[in-house]
Amino acid sequence: MQKTILLNWKANKNVLEAEHWINNIPRDLLSKKSDFKLIIAPPYPLLSQMRRLIDHQELAIGLAVQDISAQSAGAYTGEVVAKNLEFLGVEMAIVGHSERRSLFAESSQLVASKVQRALEADIGIMLCLDEPDFPEQAKLLTEQERAKVSVAYEPVSAIGSGQAVEAELVSSFFKKLRQYFPFNPLIYGGSVNSSNIKDFLAISDGVLVSSAALELNDFLILMEAAA
Ligand code: PGA
After folding, report:
1. Would the CB of 210 count as within 6 Å of ligand 1?
2. Helix, strand or coil for residue 103?
3. How far apart are CA 127 and CA 124, in angstroms?
4. How many angstroms does the Cα of residue 159 sit away from the middle of ligand 1?
5. 8 Å CB contact between 60 and 30
6. Per-residue exposure over 144-178, b if at least 16 CB sit within 10 Å of its own CB, e if not
7. Global pTM value
8. 154 in ligand 1 pocket by Cβ < 6 Å?
9. Nearest to 204 by CA among 144, 154, 135
10. Residues with catalytic function
11. What is the distance between the terminal CA atoms of the chain, rounded to a whole angstrom?
12. Which of 39, 209, 214 to mutate to test the pocket of ligand 1 (most atoms within 8 A of CB)?
């Protein structure tokens, strides 16, 4: 099975930088037969131009969003709801990232509502979890919802710090997650870089990467290390 490489661009890049990234990615790096499935989560305003470029160049790159509203369409100034994403080919929403939880006070209840909304709109979920809150978060989902999500173990201390968690500890956390998510894809995120990506890919279904792959050159180094 292909391993997922999910790039979270966070609040970085403008449309020209995104175009540069997509237009310069080596064609032979990505194919449907590759060992890796590349998904990029850019800021919302870049989505439609990226969709156009990806389609035009027939690139094997999926698009994700970094968040999604728990509301349906309506009078919610500033929100981005599932309806707004129609026809953009967004296949996945990252939900419950620790930056959303800590900087924007998202509760586990809100995160659960976002999961529900996105699944209703047929958008896949990458649910970010950490200790100690993961059982509470898992219990707020219905059994059907739980069966449909992918899960990213995102230890807060590892995110953006350069201090990834050891692969062995990730494996033991995955064992705990399996109580709630027995068959789901499980990936790891937090200071993944070219020195450790292989270790994480060996024990998981993929990785979530931000800092180490924001620049195209760095991403290419990362992919070379992953191969
Ligand atoms: P990082 O971020 O790769 O910069 O540590 C990962 C994340 O926020 O998921």
Report:
1. yes
2. helix
3. 10
4. 5
5. yes
6. ebbebbbbbbbbeebbeeeebbebeebbebbeebe
7. 0.97
8. yes
9. 154
10. 97, 154
11. 14
12. 209
**Unique residue bearing structure tokens 């924007």:** 104
How many angstroms separate the Cα of 89 from the Cα of each of 20, 48, 52, 152? Answer: 20, 9, 10, 22
61-100 pLDDT, tens digit each: 999 999 999 999 999 999 999 999 999 999 999 999 999 9
Count of residues in the chain: 227
- Closest residue (by CA) to atom 8 of ligand 1? 159
Q: Is the beta carbon of 6 within 6 A of some atom in ligand 1?
A: no
122-177 pLDDT per residue, tens: 999 999 999 999 999 999 999 999 999 999 999 999 999 999 999 999 999 999 99
Map out the domains of the chain with their CATH numbers. Answer: 3-226 (3.20.20.70)
In DSSP terms, 94 is beta-bridged to: 126
